[in-house]
Fold this sequence. Notes:
The chain contains seven helices and 92 strands. By secondary structure, the chain is mostly beta strands.
Amino acid sequence: MNRKWKGASCDGAMVLLLLGHMTTALEVPLDSKVLEGLPQPPTITLQSPKDYIIDPRENIVINCEAKGKPHPSFSWTRNGSHFDLDKDPKVTMKPSSGTLVIDISGEKAEAYEGVYQCTARNEHGTAVSNDIVIRQSRKILITFDLWSTQRKKRSCLTHVFYSIFSVTTLVFFFLCLTGSPLWSKERIEPVVVQLGVSLILQCRPPAGLPPPIIFWMDPFFQRLPQNARVSQALNGDLYFSNVQMEDTRSDYICYARFPHTQTIQQKQPITVKVLDNSPAGQRRPSFMTPKGTNSVATVLRGETLELECIADGLPTPDMSWNKEKGDLPSGRFSFHNFQKTLRVTEVTEADSGDYRCTAKNSQGLAHHVITVMVKAAPYWVGAPRNLILAPRESGILTCHVGGNPKPTITWSVNGVPIENTPKDPSRKVEDDTVILSDVQTGSSAVYQCNASNEFGYLLANAFVNVLAEPPRVLTPPNKLYQVIANNPALLDCAFFGSPIPKITWYKDQQTSILNSDPYVLHINGTLEIHAAQPLHSGKYTCVATNYLASKENHVRLEVKEPTRILKQPEYNVVQRNSKAVFECKVKHDPTLTPIMSWLKDNEELPDNERFVIESESLTISHVTEADEGTYTCIMNTTLDQDSASAVLTVVEATPTPPIIYEQPDPPTDLELTDQRERSVQLTWTPGDEHNSPIQKFLVQYEDSLHQEEAWVNMTEVPGTKTTVHLDLSPYVYYSFRVLALNDVGFSDPSLPSKQYRTNPAKPDENPSEVEGFGIKPNNLVISWKELNGLQSNGPGLQYKVSWKQKDVDQEWITETVANTSQFVVSDTPTFSAYEIKVQAENDYGTGPTPEVVVGYSGEDLPSAAPDSVQVEALNDTLAEVRWEPVHLSAVRGRLQGYKLYYWRERSLHKEDSQPEEAQVLVFGENKTDGRLPGLHPYSLYSLDMRVFNGKGEGPPSARQQFETPEGVPGQPASFRVTEPSLDSLTLVWTPPEEENGRLTLYTLRYQPVNTTSELGPMEEIILSPNETVLTVSNLKYSTRYKFYLSASTVKGSGPTVTEEGVTIMDEAMPSRQLDIATQGWFIGLMCAIALLILVLLIVCFIKRNKGGKYPVKEKEDAHQDPEIQPMKEDDGTFGEYSDTEDHKPLKGSRTPSNGTVKKDDSDDSLVDYGEGGDGQFNEDGSFIGQYSGKKEKDTAEGNESSEAPSPVNAMNSFV
């Protein structure tokens, strides 16, 4: 296929093909049984990347996989021509696949470089792959120049290493090749410079595919130190802003690592000599790179932008960056190479502009402006989707792409440019859109969209499959669904057919279920019941129908009663060695099997016979302090669970406490009986009275359908009764709770009862406060107070609004409206009297006859709201709104502008936060977009928009909601130091009031403060976001410390709060020492030791003066040892115990018996890596011996030899 773009880079987005229809996507099912016999054009499922760099040491594999029915056949082109695989025995194609395998053994990989394209075809169409550009990685050899310490010879050690990974092995293959190195051979003269001048050491590595990674090291593979003065540029050169005496060295070596082939090459060492006979003076900065004051950089959208500025100067300049007319992109920029490199990731068009780098020292500053231009290769806004159409249907293929410059779009059909295909009256091409109308059987095909500009191209295949298929229901028949009452129930009806079947649901052979409460029919055929009740149990039938046939499927729904703990375990305080009992009475659906379990502190109970679990209780005998904790009762069924916890406290035996009067415990075991249309009987069990009789019970209800979490007083019951008959309203989701009252006060509310839903009925009353007034010259506004949920009596609440002009002979005009409290009558005379009435109705009938009131018409206002209101959060405090202007005919007056009402609904972190008051922004009449500043980070906002003229505002647009992203948090709300000790301080804090997102961590830093307020070294601790207490240990006693605490989100760290604390002094230590020294036993012990030493000295003196031979002396005389010297009469030394170590070499020295000094192993001589004792060196100083590993050392050296560093490990450590 012809490609518009012919550049070397073929990077592009992968094509995502989606199944689609004009308005509804028709998915091809994955069920193999359904796919049997279902025709489908080819779809490419796997292909090699556009730019495919191959390893010349391995066979070439070019992937091309496709699916279709029937299975497609494959063919290839190479460099635009047919690639005949039969003519090349080295090329094979995998069975049932288009993947090529090229055997390059004995061949040069260069012979197979080129542009390849795969074609997959069957009788329904042809799909093509991207152009796959095959290029081989250039073979670069690693060359190390290693100098021996004698510097007698040099050799070149060359190796290419392969990594073969298995479960437990890493095998390296080393090859030693001779010949000319790939780095251009050159004689590098020593670089002689004066102290303080700038210097550039050039690397200039050989070209490679992909380009090499550069780093500077010495001959022993140690990275050369870099800092703000000496650093490596992006091109690999080593820059010195000013040279110093310590820069003098002879081993500046540049290494180039080629990542694709895992090979490395080395440049000849460079010698730098710094002289100080004419040093350079201090000077202001000037830029070494880039040159001049301005330069231009171009980057592609989505790539990483790297800008570099390196300056010379003395003292060493400091670098800084800023963007003119804007800020650096938040969260996407970073500084590298000691602030000399600015990196911006995921570049967008907004990153275009001028970037200024500034070099500054004490002598002045210099600026350089880099103008960044952002271009874009084609990228998908909306890739074309597959279409499945029935005969005579219509569809659209769209190919929405972006790019800079704007991409050129071309279309092909089955791999042939569309302009070269036969004319098709059912097909029309309009730039990026192909319109298909009245398609016919047999017109299936695969369409290709090609979007290209100078930076790349995109290719997408999308098939049009014309099918006439009767409906198929894919959900298994007679499937059983079980749910717990008041939970959603989802009944599946997965289907397939062409045209798309219509889905209808039936229950128990009744009429079809409408898409109304409580049922919701989803577009995928699923039937949802929002809050399933036992009455919804039964058999459901889904029917899929199109003009070819109908297919039905049956499923069953069982709604179970929830598992509920009626009597929870209670807080238990028991005396040690007594018995503790926790009760846990549970109610569950009788058809479900319950499993009761107990936990202690969220872990299993101890394996101890003292713990006895019964059906509704846990008993602990002979309680000890170790039994204290939280005990949790858990009741599990196959569908749900319920749990409750209580704390056990163990105390010593205490006297009987006095009588305490408290408010009663809440009632329990609420039950609903005698359930009727508009009444129910509620019963309950009273709680503990706590020594004060219950006077009365207060019954409250909650209507979760109309006003959730709002409890309303319903009736009061005498304290002697536990049953009440309640009158109910229609169409209310009732939950009841009971409070008990005694002389102390009300109890806490009981747990809510099971929800009871009353059936709908027609309204019992009409809206009140009906009135009519005018707000325009030609209309009448009829308003009323809407019925609330309790008054609606049923779903589908509407209002029949009737009016006629007073004193005029005409019939009543009636309109029905819903979800509103007013109705506007248009085209009325100005300020005319009207008779008005409003009647309520719902799906079950109408309310009573309404009263007639008189109102008057009035003035005019705009009748329409802005369309297509869209909002987008630009950052955590700024959003942008766009809208379509209101047509002038709907403004009905002079257009003054647009008012935007927006408000903060809640914080995304605090679910219970309240909406804030709406704010208003006004935009001019010609504006179609605007910005909302000053927003709160990490919040949910709502907005609507209105047009206004000289008379006032028009109706609001549809409400839109948007979320602001996370921001930087505020400082912790509180921070204090507590519990000082000798070597620790405890810190306590609370989270920030404005978290502005999800906290990710706390950063704690601290340092000592001396008596002159000087600060010591800083320590830092990273804490998890849920920590609020920390004890800092290992501190110095009697020392003041200053603590700094800040919170962080993903956006960064917030402001810091500080606090100081002081550790205490250990005053007991001196006193303890003094006490020991003054103890009598201690004085006596010291005297005894002194006396013993004196006796030993006297005995020793007597023995010495006595002389003569001793047993040891006799043995020595019998066995003369040349090492032992006789006792000298003149100096009185003891020859028999002479220390011969004084005449031995020092420990660790390596003096052999011949008296020569062996060289220390730490010299890392490269002879150890050769095949013989002496390494062979050629004239250029390169080591040519095979790399064979370190030789074994002489056994006399033991473990004191040091191993020379491995060049492989050294190289890998810098990648």
